[in-house]
Amino acid sequence: MIGAQTVVDVALSEARRLGRADETIVVVTDRVDTSLRWANNTMTTNGESTSRTTTVISIVRDGEDAHVGSVRSSAAAPAVIAGLVAASQAAAAAAPAASDSAPALPGGDTPADWDAGIPRTGVEVFGGVATELARGFRGRDTLFGFARHELETTFIATSAGLRRRFTQPTGSVEINAKRDGASAWSGVSTADFTDVPTDSMLEELATRLSWAKRTVELPAGRYETIMPPSTVADMMIYLMWSMGGRGAQEGRTALAAPGGGTRVGEKLTSLPLTLYSDPSAPGLECAPFVAAPTSSENSSVFDNGLRIDRVDWIRDGVINALSYPRAAAREFDAPVALAADNLLMTGGTASLQEMIADTERGLLLSTLWYIREVDPSVLLLTGLTRDGVYLVEDGQVTAAVNNFRFNESPLDLLRRATEAGASEVTLPREWGDWATRARMPSLRIPDFHMSSVSQAQ
Q1: CA–CA–CA angle 288, 290, 291 (5° rounding)
Q2: Each residue of 205-256: pLDDT tens digit?
Q3: What is the SS3 string spanning 318-367?
Q4: DSSP 8-state class, residue 17
Q5: Domains in the chain, please, with CATH?
C-alpha cells in the first residue's frame, strides 16, 4: 500500500482539481492486528492482518447551510482515491442541509511524526503470555482463551490545513478455565503486553474454581451483592453511551429532567464518585481529538480534529456534564463536551478481598453477559451473570450459586451503592471488543435485583 500520508495528499489534490466542494476532510486509518487462540490446553491458531479505511468528507457551503457527503472505502489501491473523492462531492451536492453544521476548524502545525512509518505488531508480542500459558496447560484446569493486539494509526487532514495523527494500541487477554463442570473467566487489557499477569490470572481462576466445589441453588430476589470492577465497567460504559445532551434535552433518555431540561446538577449518590473520560489518563491514553467518519448525536464530521479534553460526567456523585458536539452545544447553550475512548471512576480504598471480608451474607459476581436495554426512559438494563456467582457468608466465599438474569439501571446502582472499593484498571466482559480502556472500583449494592434464575452455564 502507498503511505497514508500520500493518500491524504492525493485526495486533497483531487478535491481541489474537481472543485465541487468548499471543504474537504480526509480520514485514513491504518490497522495492524494480530491474535492468538487456545482451547483444551493447546494453542490452536494465530495470525496477523493489515487493513486500511479511507473516508473522504466533502462539505458544500450555502450561506448558513452546509451539505455533507461522506464516502468510505476499505480498498487500498491508489486508483480508488479519485473515485472516492468524486463520489463524496457528488453525495454532498445531493445531500440536504446538515443539522450539525459548524464552522471549519483552522489549520495548525503539522505533527512532528506526520511522515513517520506505521507502527507494527506481530505474534511475537504474545511470547510471555504463551510461555506462561504453556505451564498452565500442564495443570488440572482446562484452559480456553483469546489474545489480541491492535495498532490503529489515524490520520486526519483538511483542506484548511489541519493535520492530526495518533496511534492507538489496544490489547486484551481473556482466559476461561473449566474444572468438574464449573467455569471461570479472567480478562485484562494491555497496551503492549509487557504487563500481562498471566500467572496471577491462572491462580485467580483456580481459586474461583475451588469455590465451586460446593454449590447452592438460590431463588430470584434482591441480594446484597459485590460487583467487581469488570462488572461495574460494563454498566458504566453503557451509562456513558447514553449521556448524549440532545437526547436528554429532547426528553428521550434517562438523563432528561421531568418537565424539561436535563438532570445535570442532580446528586446521584452520597459516595464521592467521579466518572470521567480523559485522553491523557496514565496507562489508558487514547486519541486526544475527534475522528468521525460520519455524524451521530454525540459526534460530528464538522468536529474532525477538534481537541478532546478531560470531562467529568459525574463529579463527586453529581451529574456534571452531557455530551455535546459543537453544533448541539450552540443549539442548547451548553458547553462542548466530547467523550474520549476511555472511562474511569474514582473509588475508595478497600480491596475486593476486604469488601468480601466485611460481608455477612451476600453474592459476589464475576462477570456480566448479554446486556440489553429494556427501558431507555430510566436506563433499565437486563443481562445474565456468567462464569461464577459466589455465596459469601461471614466474610468467606463458601459456594458457587446458580446464574441469574438481572434487571438494573446503572444510574440506580450508583444511587443505591453503599461502598466503593479501590479503583483499578479492568477489562469489561460484555463490551471488551469495543471498550478496553477502563478503570473502575468494586461496588457494594445492598439489594441487587436478580429478576429470575438462568439456566445458562
Answers
A1: 115
A2: 999 999 999 999 999 999 999 999 999 999 999 999 999 999 999 999 999 9
A3: EECCCEECHHHHHHHCCCCECCCCCEEECCCCCCHHHHHHCCCEEEECCE
A4: H
A5: 4-190 (3.30.2290.10), 214-457 (no CATH)
Q: What is residue 423's DSSP assignment?
A: -
pLDDT digits (tens, 9 = 90+) for 379-395: 999 999 999 999 999 99
Instruction: Compute the distance between CA of residue 278 and CA of residue 437 in angstroms, rounded to an integer.
Output: 11
d(CA 188, CA 228): 13
Give the model's pLDDT for residue 455.
79
Question: Where do we find the cell 505451564?
Answer: 135
Q: Give me the pLDDT at residue 456, please.
A: 67
0.85 exceeded by pTM: yes
Q: Kindly give, in sequence order, each residue whose CB lies less than 8 Å from that of residue 32, ignoring residues fewer than 6 positions away.
A: 48, 49, 50, 118, 119, 120, 121, 150, 151
Q: In whole angstroms, give the CA distance from residue 381 to residue 296.
A: 22
Contact assessment for residue 238 and residue 410, using Cβ atoms and an 8 Å cutoff: yes
Strand, coil or helix: 178: strand
How far apart CA 272 and CA 345 sit, in angstroms, is: 10
β-strand pairing of 142-158 with 65-73: unpaired
Please list the residues that pair with 156 across neighbouring strands. Answer: 27, 164
Count the Cβ atoms, other than its own, within 10 Å of residue 404.
25
Question: What confidence tens digit (pLDDT) does each residue in 289-342 have?
Answer: 999 999 999 999 999 999 999 999 999 999 999 999 999 999 999 999 999 999
Give the integer Cα–Cα distance in Å for 233 and 102: 33
CA 450-454-456 angle, to 5 degrees, is 135
Give the cell for residue 275.
Answer: 466518572
pLDDT (average), residues 449-454? 96
